[in-house]
Design a protein that fits this description.
Strand content: 25-35%
Signal peptide: 1-27
Protein name: Thaumatin-like protein
Low-confidence stretches: 6-10, 12-24, 235-245
Helix content: 10-25%
Order of helices and strands: HEEEEEEEEEEEHEEHHHEE
Number of helices: 5
Shape: globular
Radius of gyration: 20 Å
Disulfide bonds: 36-228, 77-87, 92-98, 143-217, 148-200, 156-166, 170-179, 180-187
Strand order of the largest sheet: 3-2-5-8-9-14
Structural class: alpha+beta
Keywords: Disulfide bond, Signal
Number of strands: 15
Family: Belongs to the thaumatin family.
Largest sheet: 6 strands, antiparallel
């Protein structure tokens, strides 16, 4: 190989390394921890899915500019050796490796990275109901820590009860009063949204609950999601502990 050819190859390698470095440094790390006394099958869009036994962690990298992203936990799952199966709560396309969003009820950590004015946006949402207590917060220490740790499953109104979780009223009644399908300002708080809001003050309790539920942090922050941050053995629901995978 000529000296010029060698230098060209070296320059190309350096460029590839630099490009890979820039992609990594622009991405955010989400440290997803299962502190529940049962297995949680973590799911992310984008990101896929991962089984987390008690005490296990999944480090997920998400590219800057990602919007409409979410992380949640699935319970009561049974997957075969190829990763096919179903979950009692939060199921997504019947697979361990999630494609798309989960089936309610499921507690959501939602985020959009580096969207406006060099800011990340993040929230905990109960718009799809509740299945697992959750903490969600940036690791830089300067931004708001979100927490939803109440026993919502145990206290869930009868109309909203579901196996392994507590539905949001939109899932049950499918009307504008609860779903806000007729546009901005078409709905407001209800007795059911107040049930969620009273127990998780920082969380979205209905679709237009933005003013008290959306938080920002400087772009480039890393984040942590903790399932059952207080341990909470009373959250354990039947069917949450077994799996074939």
């Amino acid at each position: 190989m000529s000296q010029m050819g060698y230098l060209a190859k070296l320059s190309l390698c350096s460029l590839l390394v630099l490009s890979a470095y820039l992609v990594i440094t622009q991405a955010a790390n989400f440290e997803i921890v299962n502190n529940c006394p049962y297995t949680v099958w973590a799911a992310a869009s984008p990101g896929g899915g991962r089984r987390l036994d008690r005490g296990q962690t999944w480090n997920l990298w998400v590219n800057a500019g990602t919007a409409m992203a979410r992380i949640w936990g699935r319970t009561g799952c049974n997957f075969d050796g190829s990763g096919r199966g179903r979950c009692q709560t939060g199921d997504c396309t019947g697979g361990l490796n999630c494609q798309g969003w989960g089936v309610p009820p499921n507690t959501l950590a939602e985020f959009a990275l580096n969207q406006y004015a060099n800011q990340d946006f993040y929230d905990i949402s109960l718009v799809d109901g509740f299945n697992i207590p959750m903490d969600f917060y940036p690791l830089n220490g300067g931004c708001h820590k979100l927490s939803c740790t109440a026993d919502i499953n145990g206290q869930c109104p009868n109309e909203l009860r579901a196996p392994g979780g507590c539905n949001n009223p939109c899932t049950v009644f499918k009307t504008n009063e609860y779903c806000c399908t007729n546009g901005q300002g078409s709905c407001g708080p209800t007795k059911f949204s107040r049930f969620f809001k009273d127990r998780c003050r920082d969380a979205y309790s209905y679709p237009q609950d933005d003013p008290t539920s959306t938080f920002t942090c400087p772009a480039g922050s890393n984040y942590k999601v903790v399932f059952c941050p207080l341990g909470q053995p009373h959250i354990l629901m039947p069917g949450n502990t077994s799996s074939e995978y």
